[in-house]
Specification:
about 220 residues; alpha/beta; Rossmann fold; 8 helices
């Protein structure tokens, strides 16, 4: 069993439980036409993010790593009344594609895109007093995961849910001597989360159309 079978099951899940969404299909097509890499979350993962947002009653969401805005749209649709989502994107070209996609989805009024390296834009998010955020989705450069976790804690409150994507790395996360900076970034963030008594965390391995990977969940306590 491999990625062909995993993709077949993902397609079945999407067709059976999610149904077709013409707007999201257009968002993916527009991103592909603009040459963005096809590394967005799967439809099932997008629905998972939306469910998480609803479960925590999110009215303020922070996303680190926008790409074409596919995951952003899933979460923004799940915001509570008067909710706001701030998404950070390093690449100006990607940000422009995402902005157009937010207009396409009719969500540009509740989503703010900030362009620049997250380490440069996160201080402005804090200074602007937008937080604390109810949910934070980390899906950017993996070597910076320890920094993103630290910033997430500064911008959170007791009860904030932090979701980190792509943490399994085809199983390489278990390799302590890996020379891959992405693997080491995930491992260091895991260590920091485990050492912080305020945090309760877990990680789940997944297979699907995106291959073998997984995500982590961290709940911020008092």
């Amino acid at each position: 069993m491999g990625i062909d079978q995993w993709t077949r099951v993902d397609d079945y899940i999407a067709d059976t439980l999610l149904g077709r969404d013409p707007i999201l299909d257009q968002v993916l097509a527009a991103s592909a036409d603009a040459g963005l890499p096809a590394i967005n979350v799967s439809p099932a993962q997008g629905q998972m993010l939306a469910l998480f947002a609803r479960m925590v009653g999110a009215k303020r969401i922070l996303e680190i790593g926008t790409l074409g805005g596919y995951s952003t749209i899933w979460m923004a649709r799940a915001l509570g009344e008067g909710g706001r989502l701030v998404t950070l994107e390093a690449d100006p070209a990607y940000a422009e594609v995402a902005r157009a996609n937010f207009v396409r989805a009719g969500l540009d009024g509740r989503i703010e895109v900030r362009v620049g390296l997250a380490r440069d834009t996160l201080p402005g998010v804090e200074a602007g007093g937008i937080g604390p955020f109810d949910m934070i989705f980390i899906d950017a450069d993996k070597p910076s995961n320890p920094d993103y976790l630290a910033w997430s804690l500064r911008l959170s409150r007791p009860g904030t849910l932090i979701v980190w994507d792509n943490v399994i790395r085809d199983g390489a996360v278990a390799d302590a001597v890996s020379d891959d900076a992405r693997v080491q970034g995930v491992r260091r963030a895991f260590e920091l989360a485990a050492a912080d008594p305020r945090l309760t965390s877990t990680a789940v391995q997944t297979v699907g159309c995106k291959g073998y990977d997984g995500f982590a969940l961290t709940l911020v306590g008092a």
